[in-house]
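Sat 14:20. Reprocessing the chain from the morning session after the first attempt stalled halfway. Input below, unchanged.
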Amino acid sequence: MAPADGPGGARHGSGHGFGHGHAHGEGHGRGAGRGPGRRPFDYGALRLIVLGMIAEAPRHGYELIKAIEERMGGGYSPSPGVIYPTLSWLEDMGYAVPEAEGGRKSYRITPEGAAFLAANRAAFAEIEARMGKGGGRRSAAEPVLRAMEGLKRALRSRFARGPVDAPAAEAIAEAIRAAAEEVERTMTMAAEATGGLTSTATVVTPKAAGYAAQLAKHFAHRIPARFEGDEGEIAFQAGTCRLRVAGDRLTMTVEGASPEAIATLQDVVARHLLRFAFRDELAVEWS
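Finished this time. Tokens:
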């Protein structure tokens, strides 16, 4: 069975669903404007997506990657480092089984997996709706995506013609570095003009205060972090995470100067919370 704080995050029982019921808010904060490599779903939601897709027809890892990318309108493409651990988790739980197919493992859903999918029908419908919206968000980033594809085509074409000498390789690398720096400046200026970026997730758990204190205590060994009463904050290099507890609700708000900073903060905070709360089957969704 996959470790609770491993690549698949916390385990989710069939009575709880994925990304639904324990946490509120959608879009993950990696929302509008997310790039092809940014993950718009938490691990729990991704497990349901993959399970739903292999319920339609057996698929191997690469087919799942391309199918999800297509459903998201090109706005997100999961990496093999995300898909294959997800498939392993589904196999470990007995929800999917692999079958040899032309040298690859093709996964099909099991009766247990079908039952689990049925038990989480509402959560799955919500996730599918979000995936449909994901494709629509592509329009704002369309010029960027086209430019990225153009760069990749140009590089592939040049390298296909033969070796590149050292001066030419350095000139190409310098052009890419300069473009990356300019993109970062542009995004930072845009964020500063609007007062920075924020993303929030609210998790419902009777241990809300305990988990907030545990997060602050863990990070306080390395960076400024505190939790007093019902409020606290953690000062990361990439930005700040503010913690607030109201009864059984733990609200975490991350603030950063760029989408990259927000994505980093979301990942770090959620990963540690799920590690501490692995027995509680929490899900963290950012908006």
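The two ends are 31 Å apart (CA to CA).
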